[in-house]
């Protein structure tokens, strides 16, 4: 599933390449994942100018100049692709936006878990409250104390499932939660109440180091993720623990990376340095 670095990569690319473009036409291939009927959706967005691209947690937001915002959740296999106008779209395409300047923007989803909701921009804060999103981990308001407070509220929970909850840290998912815990030397099954202050600070430092670096490399294409231009991210070779089952720990401590299931998800950890 695209996590914060992958969604942020697409946001940055949209901001650079489509802001100011006009949506001259819209083709709804399938309206199954829209919150409006295809006719209502087309009426609302056709002719609008793209005003900006934002992100909240793992949600991609495309602000329109007419007061609407498209809220896209890529879920497991969703993609937003910028192509030359007239390029044949895949059978997994849901919506195709024709843009001024000879481009088309395509939203597709192989497994069809994602969605596109059209929301009044003025109502977005209400949506965030309803979702209960936690702090953005790259915002200045996210501090070690904020992270510690989340852990303190859930002392009986295991740490990895907790930091993947969007109410605790917005945007963190399976890949980067594993990376952060390896960075901090914390076992993914450790109870949060048994994590020391120094380890919380180390987790915080890992979040602030790993996420920006992943964005610099356009995210991790561990599965089907592609960026706006259909290119895979380049961070997978730089992952320290995720999907390295059976390989030596990069700390050269004699540990071997193991895979276990935690909170219903596969996770990876070093058998020596994560305790």
UniProtKB/TrEMBL annotation:
Subunit architecture: Monomer.
PANTHER family associated with the record: FORMAMIDOPYRIMIDINE-DNA GLYCOSYLASE
Pfam families in the cross-refs: Fapy_DNA_glyco (PF01149), H2TH (PF06831)
Formamidopyrimidine-DNA glycosylase catalytic domain location: 2-114
Cofactor: Zn(2+)
Species: Candidatus Uhrbacteria bacterium RIFCSPHIGHO2_02_FULL_57_19
Keyword vocabulary terms for this entry: DNA damage, DNA repair, DNA-binding, Glycosidase, Hydrolase, Lyase, Metal-binding, Multifunctional enzyme, Zinc, Zinc-finger
GO biological process: base-excision repair
CDD domains: EcFpg-like_N
GO MF entry, a single one: 8-oxo-7,8-dihydroguanine DNA N-glycosylase activity
SUPFAM superfamilies given in the database record: Glucocorticoid receptor-like (DNA-binding domain), N-terminal domain of MutM-like DNA repair proteins, S13-like H2TH domain
Protein name listed in UniProt: DNA-formamidopyrimidine glycosylase
Catalytic activity reported: 2'-deoxyribonucleotide-(2'-deoxyribose 5'-phosphate)-2'-deoxyribonucleotide-DNA = a 3'-end 2'-deoxyribonucleotide-(2,3-dehydro-2,3-deoxyribose 5'-phosphate)-DNA + a 5'-end 5'-phospho-2'-deoxyribonucleoside-DNA + H(+); Hydrolysis of DNA containing ring-opened 7-methylguanine residues, releasing 2,6-diamino-4-hydroxy-5-(N-methyl)formamidopyrimidine
Domain FPG-type: 240-275
